[in-house]
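Sample 3 of the quickstart, ligand adenosine monophosphate:
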Amino acid sequence: MEIISKIKTMQETADSLRHENKRIGFVPTMGALHQGHFSLINAAKKENDALVVSIFVNPIQFSPEEDYGSYPIALEKDTEICKQMGVDIIFCPEATEMYSERLLTTVNVSEITSGLCGSFRPCLFQGVTTVVTKLFHAVKPHVAYFGQKDYQQAAVIKRMVMDLNFDVEIRVLPIVREEGTGLALSSRNAYLNPEERAQAGILFETLRKAKLMLDDGERDGVKLSSWMKENIEGSFLALLEYAEVCDTETLKPLLQIETRALLALAVKIGKTRLIDNMIWEQAG
Ligand code: AMP
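Result:
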């Protein structure tokens, strides 16, 4: 396994892989790897000839009050995991390599970035689309893998790829959850103390119950999102950011639910911000 920290080296390596007709699979991450990442890595390994995993905590997607400075870093352990999983290249540039000068160019996707996480994290999506563009230009993948855990992020990246004609296929894989509690795996779960971790199950529980209400015939989006809000707010330690029932494409709140909906949550448990979502589809 090769570890590359320079953009130029990564580009040259990608060029020679492409020259050898190798299909490059790419999994962008911020490290502190867990089973959620592993599912993307395993799929990418199976479906491609060469597998690149990037580990980069992207400073420009964090607002000043957010957790950039304390984001969990486990480069040694991540390297060992990647080696065992058959990763061919880890791309792990320093922040100064990615953003060497004052950044004058950014990538922005409008409309679908304004709601949900976009309302609470003003730097997030511009930071994500800009870094993913830069990573794609470094790694030159044929296919890139993202998790449904960050549903809005995946939707934004798919839109960027379509609108700007990136020559890369985007694959979005299901959320990997903790057994028993259903808590969506996240590097940020490491911040939770045992009491907070016990409370964090409220996200999955709320989504699961909301989905059952839909199965039972509830079609009023406002009623359903109000119920989700109340259910979260009733939980000790949980501070709600949003609980929404949205269109799966536009990500706008749905008043009337027809055959498909995105149920999306962002909740702070203590200081830890957690997100989760589920897609509901009418059976049959
Ligand atoms: P991160 O390192 O948190 O930026 O995540 C890197 C990629 O892994 C993103 O595409 C995430 O959506 C995905 N991911 C993170 N957690 C999970 C999970 N529990 N299940 C599936 N994918 C995940």
